[in-house]
Design a protein that fits this description.
Elements: H1 3-15, H2 17-33, H3 42-49, H4 54-62, E1 67-72, H5 87-97, E2 101-107, H6 113-116, H7 125-140, E3 147-151, H8 157-166, E4 173-176, H9 187-198, H10 204-214, H11 226-236, H12 252-272, H13 280-287, H14 295-298, H15 301-314, H16 320-330, H17 337-344, H18 361-366, H19 369-379, E5 400-405, E6 416-421, E7 445-450, E8 453-458, E9 468-476, H20 479-487, E10 496-500, H21 505-508, H22 517-525, E11 530-534, E12 547-552, E13 569-573, E14 578-581, H23 584-588, H24 611-616, H25 639-642
């Protein structure tokens, strides 16, 4: 085991000792009192199965078979979630075939940052994660269930579903993916058209044609943004079945994996039934058995470290510097940006998936995918194998991949599903490499520190010659003002650092600012040194321009960005981990300027309904959550020293 992995894990365990113990005690008590289907009063139980057919009513009344909750994010507007339309019926049939019962317990909202990019609706995006968590908790609150099947894919949906599931941590929970769409227009060609459009060299029709050819069918978008980072993390956390994340919708293998998830959930629910009423110590010990995987036990400190390592090695979404922190805290685990920074220094960069390269997730999957990534990281001592998963104990189970085997009737007969060892070597080293021959010796995400605060930067898509920028600031309080300045040629023929402030969680919900990427890319391609510094987000699609994002403390809460003015010299140094500011003492002594949206500027498109979220949301480095966090000590060493 790599010594840094051990050290980071040990300090997370020590830091989390109090809150983790309290969390485990709480879910052990929940196992003692629920699920309470067998103890519901007659009227309560009758309401719980009133809509069921007679056979299901009889089974639900008997209390013998486990009953699984299906929580779905289905809608038919978003490509990633449209495949879930048929899942409830398929899952119910498979659950019944495995000896259980299932009910659709509830739905959660699923919004798309791609649709809302640059629009007012984007200001609700980050908040939607916690709404989803609350919606999932409401779905499970009926106490009718012995386990759960979570249907979700995209940006805030999967983290929200997991946070909600962890509030019912005594229940075994399996996440069921839908898979990515097949490959369309290559991402490099799409990005080129976007940049040409930003320069006025392509028409809107040409741009729409390119976007439509890229995002063209059912399934997740194929670039390696937050949605596909979610899928990789759920698998490495042990909450998907092995090899199931990146199988395309509508295929026979996809359907077989969905059936297998249902059957596995029944087995886990049966195995966990004997845990009710046990003392905490015995409960935790017995919950770690192969057919007992309460989600609160699966998501432990080692599993969280594994997720961090996989994110870093794959060059995953910057959004997970918040989501992983929030998911960990929902399980009583205190993860910090310093932990991510220290891991990033020793975890090699093993993947080149757009925007970090030209390949998409289908190419990554074909090259060996998650199975090979897990294998090589285990061999390098960079993952904990001794974890619990929904497939059984040991992360080494996730080096395997599923395949269909023809049935006894021969070709054309009913196929069965089995898992075999995945490829021992990458099948395309331009996309996926072993830990012994990485693309870079360190991870694709880094943490910056300095007088402007703490920030995150995604370096895997940024060429080495662009990773250090020192230039005068140009300051904007709204992304629209930056785009107007670009269109008016006010940013031509100079180096600069764009400071886009009042974009944090408490200011306006921390929207993604990905719409700025084409304009910044144009200026960089003209030979200028450009970078962006913001308390907003740039998402998993962060591109070739260095972007210091999630700056904390944010401007709206008195952060240093509120004191920066045009012309102040700012340094973004991804090599040394520095977010620098010349003459910092003078700048920080100034009064703040600018402000977050107020009054009618924070109204319409549903935004006024989320005013309570603005008032209570936590900082980005604590997960940007509205939920109360466990008290945690300050980082043991100043962040700049970790970097």
């Amino acid at each position: 085991m790599h010594p840094v992995l051990e050290e980071v894990t040990e300090r997370i365990v020590a830091r989390s000792a109090g809150p983790r113990a309290a969390y485990l005690a709480r879910i052990a008590r929940a196992a003692e009192t629920g699920p309470a289907r067998g103890r519901l009063a007659c009227a309560n139980l009758a309401h719980g199965f009133a809509a069921s057919d007679p056979a299901e009513k009889a089974e639900l009344r008997s209390g013998v078979k486990p009953n699984l909750a299906v929580v779905t994010s289905y809608n038919d507007m978003l490509s990633a979630h449209q495949p879930f339309e048929t899942y409830p019926r398929q899952l119910k049939k498979a659950v019944i075939g495995a000896g259980g019962l299932a009910q659709v317990a509830g739905g959660v909202p699923a919004m798309c940052d791609g649709v809302t990019q640059g629009r007012a609706g984007m200001q609700l995006s980050l908040y939607s994660r916690d709404v989803i968590a609350m919606s999932a908790a409401i779905a499970l609150s009926h106490d009718m269930f012995d386990g759960a099947l979570m249907l979700g894919v995209c940006d805030k949906i999967v983290p929200g579903l997991l946070i909600g599931a962890l509030s019912f941590g005594h229940l075994p929970t399996v996440f069921v993916p839908a898979g990515p769409m097949t490959s369309g227009l290559p991402n490099k060609e799409k990005a080129a058209v976007r940049q040409r459009y930003a320069e006025g060299l392509a028409t809107r029709e040409e741009l729409l044609e390119a976007e439509s050819a890229s995002y063209h069918s059912r399934g997740t978008c194929t670039f390696y943004g937050t949605a596909n980072s979610n899928q990789l993390l759920m698998e490495v956390l042990g909450l998907h079945l092995p090899g199931s994340s990146f199988v395309n919708p509508g295929t026979e293998l996809r359907e077989a994996l969905t059936d297998a998830a249902a059957a596995r959930s029944v087995a886990l629910a049966r195995g966990s039934a004997g845990l009710a009423g046990l003392p905490l110590g015995e409960w935790s010990q017995r919950a770690a058995q192969p057919d007992r995987a309460p989600v609160g036990e699966v998501v432990d400190e080692k599993a969280i470290v594994n997720a961090c390592v996989a994110l870093l090695a794959s060059g995953g979404s910057t959004n997970h510097t918040m989501h992983l922190v929030a998911m960990a805290r929902a399980a009583g685990i205190v993860l910090t940006w310093a932990d991510l920074s220290d891991l990033s220094a020793v975890v090699p960069s093993l993947c080149r998936i757009y925007p970090n390269g030209s390949a998409d997730v289908n190419h990554f999957h074909a090259a060996g995918g998650i199975g090979f990534l897990v294998r090589t990281l285990l061999e390098a001592g960079l993952l904990h194998d001794d974890v619990q998963t929904v497939a059984g104990p040991g992360l080494s189970r996730y080096t395997r991949e599923p395949r269909l085997v023809e049935g006894p009737e021969g070709p054309g007969g009913r196929s069965s599903l089995e898992w075999v060892e995945g490829t021992p070597a990458s099948l395309d080293t331009d996309v996926l490499r072993p830990a012994s021959d990485p693309f870079a010796p360190d991870g694709g995400l880094r943490v910056l520190g300095g007088p402007l605060g703490s920030a995150v930067i995604k370096t895997s898509a940024v060429k080495p010659e662009h990773r250090v920028v020192t230039a005068p600031a140009v300051v904007f309080d709204d992304q629209a003002d930056f785009l107007a300045a670009f269109a008016a040629h006010e940013l031509d023929d100079r180096d600069f650092v764009a400071v886009i402030r009042y974009q944090g969680p408490a200011a306006n919900g921390m929207p993604e600012l990905h719409k700025l990427t084409p304009a910044l890319g144009v200026l960089q391609d003209r030979g200028h040194a450009v970078a962006i510094v913001t308390d907003g987000r740039m998402s998993g699609a962060s591109g070739k321009v260095p972007a210091a994002i999630h700056v904390t403390p944010e401007a709206a809460l008195g952060g240093a960005l509120a004191r920066v003015r045009d012309g102040d010299v700012v340094t973004v140094d991804a090599e040394r981990g520095l977010l620098g500011l010349a003459d910092a003492e003078t700048v920080l002594a100034r009064p703040a300027t600018g402000s977050a949206p107020q009054g009618e500027d924070w109204a319409g498109t549903g935004r006024e309904l989320f005013s309570a979220f603005r008032a209570t949301v936590g900082p980005a480095d604590a997960g940007a959550s509205v939920f109360p966090a466990y008290d945690a000590p300050q980082q043991e060493v100043p962040l700049a020293q970790h970097v």
